[in-house]
Amino acid sequence: MLTKLFRWVRRVVSSRIRGAFRTAQRTIYNQRVPLKVLAARRNLLMGTAVSYTALKSSPLYVRTLCQEYNLIAVENAFKWLTLRPERDQFAFEQGDFIVNFADANKLAVRGHPLVWAGALPVWLQKGAFSKDELAEILHTHITTIVRHYAKSIQIWDVVNMALKANGDLSESLWYHALGANYIDQAFQWAYEAAPQARLFYNDYNIEALTPKSDAVYKLVKGMLERGIPIHGVGLQAHFAFNHHPAIRDITANIDRLGQLGLEVHITECDVSAPGMIRASASGKRQILRAQAAVYHDVMAACLQSKYCTAFVTWGFSDAYSWQNNAHKPFHALPFDEHYRPKPAYYGLHSALQESYHSVL
Ligand code: XIL
């Protein structure tokens, strides 16, 4: 009887302590300066990709988003698969919902992507179209979308992931249809539809100094020399807790692109942590600390170059991460699935704060 009572008291006390600890954590977090405020002091936009489903269904998602970020990237709503169900049909519902939300909450928007070999609808993949037809389909696509959002979207990923690891152009549908010129052509069409917008080439594994990032450098330098309207390069930055390039190499890459007259955005940063599921409690803490260090370092690399003007993560809560598709949950983002800030959040926060103090 006495043992039972003792156990009950212990349970109640420890759950009260845990509760008080969580409240204290929450209070500390609530009193922190949001990421977007710290970033703004360094003229940096702080962004995240948004999920249409989460935006529509989770008030906590919306609250965290608006509290911490001032830029959103459209994760899937502008992909051909979502936006172009048929050759003669545009499905703007998801995109309009997201863009109206952004306008209402004063968030800038990164439109993503106009041209990509991924997420193509079956009618396009299997259509056996002639080269001229494909050129017309692409032209109509770019023109219609960019004009539709001309008032609200000032930043576009015009071409996404066009290069192979060795730097050669991927042999995509667009490459076969229009030849190597399709990239120039796409930027030209986007420019004609919205001359005020900033137009980006976006890719992965081009964050530091690699054969692929050399190829991107060559590609965009050539475009500028040919008078093609390109204004920036997006570095996706999908990393892992135990693997990311050296900060100085990322900064050097950003600087060389900047010296061409371009701006650079970190566009899809996330830091996967696949070992989390099987790790012990102390193993988990170690992984989360390592993940925080990666977020910190990538942010620091961006802040060390004056040409890096936006830092975007590919989602912000582990409740909604594309990495979860492969292995749920993947713990790749700065907030956990209950929207509590993780060490990763504080990694970003402290990099921003350090850089602020260093320029004071
Ligand atoms: C991903 C989305 O996040 C997923 O929800 C979707 O199932 C597949 O595409 N690089 C890109 C993004 O440029 O568009 C991809 O987004 C992630 C990799």
Task: Give an overview in words.
The chain contains 15 helices and nine strands. Helix 12 runs parallel beside helix 13 (281-303). The protein is globular and about 85 Å long. The mean pLDDT is 93. The chain has an eight-stranded parallel barrel with strand order 1-2-3-4-5-6-8-9, surrounded by four helices. Helices cover 49% and strands 14% of the residues. It has 360 residues and is of the alpha/beta class. It has helices at 2-30, 35-40, 52-57, 59-68, 80-83, 93-104, 122-125, 131-148, 173-178, 182-193, 211-225, 247-258, 281-303, 323-326, 343-359, and strands spanning 45-50, 71-74, 108-111, 155-160, 198-203, 232-235, 238-240, 263-272, 308-313. Helix 12 links the parallel strand 7 and strand 8 (263-272).
What fraction strand? Answer: 5-15%
**Widest sheet, order of strands:** 1-2-3-4-5-6-8-9
* H/E element order: HHEHHEHHEHHEHHEHEEHEHEHH
Shape estimate = globular
Low-confidence stretches: none
Radius of gyration: 22 Å
Named once each, the bound ligands are: (3S,4R)-3-hydroxy-2-oxopiperidin-4-yl beta-D-xylopyranoside
Main sheet summary: 8 strands, parallel, barrel
Distance between the termini: 64 Å
Q: What fraction, in percent, of the residue positions are helical?
A: 40-55%
Return the average pLDDT rounded to an integer.
Answer: 93
Number of strands: 9
